[in-house]
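Need tokens for this chain, all 52 residues.
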Amino acid sequence: MSTATASEEREPEWRGFASSGKVLFRLGPADAGRLCITEAAIDAMSLAAIED
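Here are the structure tokens for all 52 residues:
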């Protein structure tokens, strides 16, 4: 399941917002005890492969 979303980036003296071009998706169970945010889908797939 994919949902289009927006993203916000923050640094101590800078803040940016992107209203398009980002996709949020979930791998694994809905009640997982951990959330991992990756920069690209391939990074998420690599993490899933490493952690089985």
